[in-house]
């Protein structure tokens, strides 16, 4: 098929046909467990912390997760078709060197998430066992690093075990909470609607799910190339949607029930109200899932860092290079986590806002290119050739990204900056709803002017 190499490709990124294995349903547990962990718990608590009640937090979480996961899951089909990780697929849209723009953004995402994961890990073990925070963060990071070093197969196996364990734990927690945990008055009252915290929770959930887009093909690229778009989409969507929504709802419920506590302590208190000690069980399993989520970040960051280096000088797929790249990422995330202030929720909210600003234009451009412009037809050797058909710089992708980002700026709303349009609508951040269509239309128009689609059709 046209998406396979026309000549032999040996790269740190490409998975040859003879190494493809696995089943498409394996995407479900990796994204269910990948979403059902402590950081997701914290994401679900953001709306309650801003003043929303539980009823409207539930609506915002489900709606936001549906929006973000919808776009994220469409990226999953790219892995089996191309055999490439997600970020390397940006070269046809942005060029061999132009793709460094989004790779840099992806690297910041990996490092930022892992920094917050390390902080959460330290807080959790301090809550559970009274352990000192910083030494715990170091041990947690080293375990995640070790899993990432072993690689894809271990991550898949660990996620499958965790996924089915989490289903049992979350089902027991959900049923028990409905029976045994009373909520403060007004938490389930539909009349208590506050627009700003509702929209903040909605887009925080959407941004959190959308940010998985930079990972998703990293773990589907090992599947056989005959895996269809529909199957890859639905198995990914089902896993990420269920895991994300369920764990965010646990976070929202916990903080609604115990508003005086932080989200970790509140989740433990809810669990213990069901059965003494059950809160500890919940946090331990969610902690284990956080380890594998951190491994996902380390693994993806390592691939991205090696790809960045490979853009300037050919990088061999050696153990030494993998170790060096993993250590660099670990040091960066650890430095950030140790310098983080005590205002965890404010910093985490800011990270999610930044991610939605940076990745909204990219996801629109990447999906339009794959499904509409080139209709899934790419020349793999040219993706790795700086002088190939995709060039060093692709003006269409870069200009469309810039247009999409610039039109979003007036709609930004964070505690550091609020755009004029956001101020006019009460501080509500709807930048994602603006950036997606504008970036997609701009890229499609620019590509048609350059007749990229006609050229791609020749690869068929």
Write structural notes for this entry.
The protein has 460 residues and is mainly α. It has one domain (23-356): Hydantoin permease (Orthogonal Bundle), CATH 1.10.4160.10. 70% of the residues lie in helices and 0% in strands. It has helices at 27-35, 38-44, 46-50, 54-76, 78-82, 91-94, 100-129, 133-150, 152-180, 195-210, 229-257, 263-274, 278-310, 319-339, 344-373, 380-383, 395-408, 420-424, 431-450, 452-457. The chain starts with 26 loop residues before the first helix and ends with a helix.
Question: Which short descriptors sum up this protein?
Answer:
mainly alpha, 20 helices, globular, Hydantoin permease, disordered N terminus, Cytosine permease, 460 residues, 0% strand, transport
Topology overview:
Elements: H1 27-35, H2 38-44, H3 46-50, H4 54-76, H5 78-82, H6 91-94, H7 100-129, H8 133-150, H9 152-180, H10 195-210, H11 229-257, H12 263-274, H13 278-310, H14 319-339, H15 344-373, H16 380-383, H17 395-408, H18 420-424, H19 431-450, H20 452-457
Give me the CATH fold name: Hydantoin permease
How many H/I helical runs? 20
Low-confidence stretches: 1-12
How many discrete structural domains? 1
What is the CATH class designation? Answer: Mainly Alpha
Please identify, by name, the CATH architecture: Orthogonal Bundle
Structural class: mainly alpha
């Amino acid at each position: 098929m046209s998406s396979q190499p026309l000549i032999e490709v040996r790269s740190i990124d490409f998975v040859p046909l003879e190494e493809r294995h696995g089943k498409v349903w394996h995407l479900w547990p990796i994204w269910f467990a990948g979403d059902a962990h402590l950081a997701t718990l914290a994401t679900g608590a953001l709306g309650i912390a801003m003043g929303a009640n539980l009823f409207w937090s539930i609506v915002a979480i489900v709606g936001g997760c549906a929006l973000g996961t919808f776009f994220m899951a469409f990226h999953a089909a790219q892995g089996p078709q191309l055999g490439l990780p997600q970020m390397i697929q940006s070269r046809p849209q942005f060029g061999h060197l132009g793709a460094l723009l989004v790779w840099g953004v992806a690297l910041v995402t990996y490092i930022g998430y892992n920094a917050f994961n390390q902080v959460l890990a330290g807080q959790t073990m301090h809550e559970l066992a009274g352990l000192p925070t910083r030494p715990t963060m170091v041990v947690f990071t080293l375990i995640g690093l070790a899993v990432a070093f072993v690689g894809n197969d271990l991550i898949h196996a660990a996620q499958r075990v965790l996924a089915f364990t989490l289903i049992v734990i979350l089902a027991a927690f959900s049923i028990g909470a409905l029976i045994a945990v009373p909520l403060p008055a007004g938490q389930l009252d539909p009349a208590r609607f506050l627009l700003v915290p509702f929209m903040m929770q909605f887009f925080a959930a959407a941004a959190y799910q959308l940010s998985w887009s930079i990972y998703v093909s990293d773990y589907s690229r090992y599947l056989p190339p005959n895996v269809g778009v529909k199957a890859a989409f639905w198995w990914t969507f089902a896993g990420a949607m269920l895991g994300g929504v369920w764990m965010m709802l646990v976070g929202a419920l916990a903080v609604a029930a115990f508003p005086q506590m932080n989200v970790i302590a509140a989740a433990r208190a809810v669990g213990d109200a069901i059965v003494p000690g059950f809160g500890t069980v919940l946090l331990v399993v969610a902690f284990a899932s956080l380890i594998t989520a951190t491994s996902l970040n380390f693994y993806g960051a390592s691939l991205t860092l090696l790809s960045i280096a490979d853009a300037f000088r050919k990088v061999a797929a050696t153990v030494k290079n993998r170790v060096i790249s993993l250590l660099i990422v670990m040091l960066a995330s650890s430095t950030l986590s140790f310098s983080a202030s005590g205002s965890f929720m404010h910093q985490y909210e800011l990270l999610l806002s930044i991610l939605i600003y940076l990745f909204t234009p990219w996801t629109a451009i990447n999906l339009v290119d794959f499904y509409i412009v080139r209709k899934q037809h790419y020349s793999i050797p040219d993706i790795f050739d700086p002088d190939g058909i995709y060039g060093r710089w692709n003006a269409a992708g870069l200009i469309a990204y810039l247009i999409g980002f610039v039109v979003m700026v007036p709609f930004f709303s964070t505690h550091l900056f609020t755009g004029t349009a956001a101020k006019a609508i009460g501080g509500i951040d709807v930048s994602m709803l603006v950036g997606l269509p504008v970036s997609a239309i701009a890229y499609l128009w620019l590509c048609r002017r350059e007749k990229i689609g006609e050229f791609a059709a020749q690869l068929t």
